Amino acid sequence: MSPARLLLPAALLVVHAACQQAFEVDRHDLVGDRIAAVLVERSADALHPRALLISGGHGWSDTRPLIRWFVLDPDRAVGALMALDVLSTPDAEGATPTLPRAEGDTALGLMVTFPSGETLRAVRTVPAEEPAPVSVPTGMSVASLPWDLDPEQTTPEVLSLDARRNTEADPAGSPEPGSWSRLT
């Protein structure tokens, strides 16, 4: 059999597999229990973890899940957390505990027993050095420079940052809905 004859059945198999749903539940439907996120705030000598939980497909639960936190060795955190069971003594319990901050990297293990009886685990490693903050713009002010600049008189001094800061600007206003703006 030639390789060309095998290409068509292989292509049909790939197309057929690509059209199949990967999961029984649509990704937009939240079902079951999940640990959606683990957040950690730092203070000078402590860590303040929080967990975002989905219980029974909802962000709320009529019965409080049992939330237990463990301080683990960062090098063996996953294995250590998997070795713990529901009877292990946690370092802290509850939704917003305070845990001691270690000298180096710290691994926090989270074990949650949901009202359904399902127990899920998650590990979050907290580096010793706090990452650089990410700043997000909170607003924008748009103005335009005057268009009557003579190209013959445009010198580096006229275009310097200090000269442009002292130039009287005309507010550009807001674009109309459906229109566009260009920022340069």
Task: Tell me what the structure shows.
With 184 residues, the protein is of the alpha+beta class. The chain is 15% helix and 27% strand. The protein has three helices and nine strands. A four-stranded antiparallel beta sheet has the order 4-3-6-7, with helices on one face. Strands 1-2-5 form a three-stranded antiparallel beta sheet, with no helix packed on it. A two-stranded antiparallel ribbon has the order 8-9. The longest helix is centred in the N-terminal third of the chain and has 16 residues, at 3-18. The chain is elongated and about 80 Å long. The model has no long low-confidence stretch (mean pLDDT 77).
Average the pLDDT over all residues and give the rounded result: 77
User: Which of globular, elongated, flat, extended, rod-shaped describes the shape?
Assistant: elongated
Distance between the termini: 61 Å
The number of distinct helices, counting runs of at least 4 residues, comes to: 3
How do the strands line up in the largest sheet? 4-3-6-7
Beta-strand residue percentage: 25-35%
Radius of gyration: 29 Å
